């Protein structure tokens, strides 16, 4: 009985799901990058870093302004240090830093423009002692 009632609404469910995915496409793409990086055995971050990165991403996803912001290209976490890959003239930096510093386990938040190092986004060469001295 329920199956016969649900069948005519199936196209609407699909349309609603596609509309939701399209309106949140940037956020979905960032979560897909995170899932890909978490599954890859080479260069996989520690379990604690993956959990913290998931909390950080969830915090960004819960804010409607940051969720759809095209300037956030990627997020990396290592030992409590969050690095946002953004352009130099990013106007939502203050909001993101305030939001992410409230996440439990985050020690400092940086954008890619905070430092002059070439490999700042390469988390494997991130010097955490330097980042604590330059916390935002």
Describe this structure in a few short sentences.
It contains seven helices and three strands, in the order H-H-H-H-H-E-E-H-E-H. It is mainly alpha-helical.
Describe the structure in your own words.
The protein has seven helices and three strands. β1 and β2 form a beta hairpin. α3 packs antiparallel against α4. The longest helix has 16 residues. The C terminus is likely disordered.
Key phrases:
136 residues; single chain; 3-stranded mixed beta sheet; 10% strand; mainly alpha
Give the percentage of residues in beta strands.
5-15%
Fraction of helical residues: 40-55%
Mean pLDDT: 79
Low-confidence stretches: 123-136
Beta-strand segment tally: 3
Ends: how far apart? 59 Å
Structural class: mainly alpha
Q: How many domains, as an integer?
A: 1
Spatial strand order of the main sheet: 1-2-3
What is the overall shape? elongated
Question: What Rg do the Cα atoms give?
Answer: 18 Å
Reading the helices and strands in chain order gives: HHHHHEEHEH
Main sheet, how many strands, which sense, barrel? 3 strands, mixed
Counting H and I runs of at least 4 residues, what is the number of helices?
A: 7
């Amino acid at each position: 009985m329920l199956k016969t009632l649900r069948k005519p609404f199936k196209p609407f469910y699909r349309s609603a799901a596609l509309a939701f995915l399209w309106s949140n496409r940037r956020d979905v793409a960032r979560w897909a990058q995170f899932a890909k990086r978490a599954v890859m055995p080479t260069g996989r971050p520690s379990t604690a870093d993956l959990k913290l990165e998931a909390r950080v991403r969830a915090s960004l996803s819960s804010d409607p302004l940051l969720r759809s912001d095209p300037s956030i290209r990627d997020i990396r976490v290592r030992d409590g240090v969050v690095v946002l890959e953004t352009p130099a003239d990013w106007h939502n930096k203050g909001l993101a830093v305030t939001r992410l510093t409230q996440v439990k386990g985050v020690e400092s938040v940086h954008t890619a423009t905070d430092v002059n190092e070439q490999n700042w986004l390469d988390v494997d060469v991130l010097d955490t002692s330097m980042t604590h001295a330059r916390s935002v």
